[in-house]
């Protein structure tokens, strides 16, 4: 979590829908929080953050499959390089709230396995079967095309697009005058 700028006193909310991915995130976030608190024991109790005050940011359950699906949605809509860079692992919203997505490298199968081994029961959203939604249609096509094989390949493409976008943004210098 340190890679996301999250420390022992950072206050986070976890977005939970009841699906395997969000419940795995909630469980992993709880375990990380407990571990961070144990490591933070020397601090006084008054300096620790409240469990009910989530003003620093929140965690989202997006995983590797979501990033692959987003890539294909953006390709189908003619997105440029920045759009093909995938779901960002973190970003700061206009109001200063930080969103982090620590599971972007985890697969749906890994998250379901985590829930199963931890005895966590999840709910499958019946609307995920509705192929009139672009994301569900793409998910269905990817399952038919050996999703796990494609995920690694598309993740590499997304990472390359993200790196190229970052390089381009660092090369662009703001102009102080407009011709």
From TrEMBL:
Question: Keywords on this record?
Answer: ATP-binding, Ligase, Nucleotide-binding, tRNA processing
Region of interest called Disordered, as start-end residue ranges on this chain: 35-61
Where does the tRNA(Ile)-lysidine/2-thiocytidine synthase N-terminal domain start and stop, copy by copy?
Answer: 62-140
| tRNA processing found in the keyword field | yes
Q: Which GO terms describe its biological process?
A: tRNA processing
What start and end residues bound the annotated signal peptide? none
Q: Which InterPro entries match?
A: Rossmann-like_a/b/a_fold (IPR014729), TilS/TtcA_N (IPR011063), tRNA_Ile_lys_synt (IPR012094), tRNA_Ile_lys_synt_N (IPR012795)
Write down the superkingdom of origin: Eukaryota
The keyword Manganese appears for this protein:
no
Query: Which EC number(s) does UniProt give?
Result: 6.3.4.19
Molecular function per GO: ATP binding; tRNA(Ile)-lysidine synthase activity
Task: Tell me which Pfam families the record gives.
Answer: ATP_bind_3
Residues annotated as coiled-coil are: none
Q: Which reaction does it catalyse?
A: cytidine(34) in tRNA(Ile2) + L-lysine + ATP = lysidine(34) in tRNA(Ile2) + AMP + diphosphate + H(+)
List all Basic and acidic residues biased stretches. 50-61
Q: Which PANTHER family match?
A: TRNA(ILE)-LYSIDINE SYNTHASE-RELATED (PTHR43033), TRNA(ILE)-LYSIDINE SYNTHETASE (PTHR43033:SF5)
Task: Please state what the protein is called.
Answer: tRNA(Ile)-lysidine synthetase
